[in-house]
Amino acid sequence: MARFILRRLGQSALILLILSFVIYGLIGLMPGDPLDVMLASAPGATPDVIAHLRDIYGLDQPLLSRYWHWLISALTGDFGFSRTHSRPVLEVMAPALWQTTKLMLTAFALSALLSLVLGVVSALRPGGWIDGIVSLFAFAGMSLPVFWLALVLILVFAQTLHWLPASGMSAGRGGGVIDGLRHLILPVATLVLANTGGFTRYVRASMIETLRLDFIRTARAKGAGPLRIVLVHALRNAALPIVTMFGLSFGTLFSGALVTETMFAQWGMGKMVYDAILGNDFNLALTGLLLAALVTLLSSLAADLAYCWLDPRIEMT
């Protein structure tokens, strides 16, 4: 197991290295650079001043040389400065990362729990009225655009009923923990409704297939109760493809729900990377994208490790 984990971590490090070079090169090919944006506010700058600034920022060097200097600095924990915020990248990223962690972990946990319950209940009586209601809910969640769903929740619970705030973040700004949680309810509800439908369909399909296998009939013939059959025999064996789907989806969620964060004015990873790309903030955009890739790789590793816990017969080689 330890050998497998070390090998996967080495593969992840290699993938991150390749991704960093690809993303750095793609960002470098974008029209304009941070210095062009800076000089736009100082049209009277002379060519000598421009050349001197390019030398200071290293923009007069080849792309490979610039990437090498950035990589060496990043390995020591220095990811450079954010041009748009005039602060170190890690200082700018910390609030966005914390907000995304709160938002995505809460939404992912609730979506996973709700989809497991709905998927299992729906699979027990496929074609019944409960299955029809669950399927309708799942397809509605998968079909509704996220921005439309967010607008509906804002109109109903913020504008009409005045139960919840429509946008913003107050946690850490004097609002207290309770007020911070109130600001998270609508964004979390949007992500839960948008993601539970797809999760539920996966759980339902996997459970229906497992409940039709021979060992389930054997367990029933031996007198196992319905609850034991579902929780111990069926769900544990059906969980392997479900874990794969959950692991990959978590990495996608953590990269930031740009639409949700924009609709509710949440300063998260998705909004941060989007604004950084538009503002030619290369260091901030590159670090944010690499962090999203790292979380996706670690999520895939966690899913593989969960296989061993669910089915000890699986060997990690």
Summarize this structure as a short list of keywords or feature phrases.
317 residues, mainly alpha, MetI-like fold, 2 domains, 76% helix, 1% strand
Structural overview:
- The chain is mainly alpha-helical and 317 residues long.
- The chain folds into two domains: 2-89, no CATH class; 92-310, Orthogonal Bundle (MetI-like fold).
- The protein has 13 helices and two strands; from the N terminus they run ααααββααααααααα.
- The chain has helices at 2-28, 34-40, 47-57, 63-75, 89-124, 129-143, 146-160, 176-211, 214-221, 226-254, 258-263, 269-278, 282-310, and strands at residues 81-82, 87-88.
- The chain has a two-stranded antiparallel sheet with strand order 1-2.
- A hairpin with a 4-residue loop joins β1 and β2.
- α5 packs parallel to α13 and α12 (269-278) packs antiparallel against α13.
- It is flat.
- The N and C termini lie close together (8 Å).
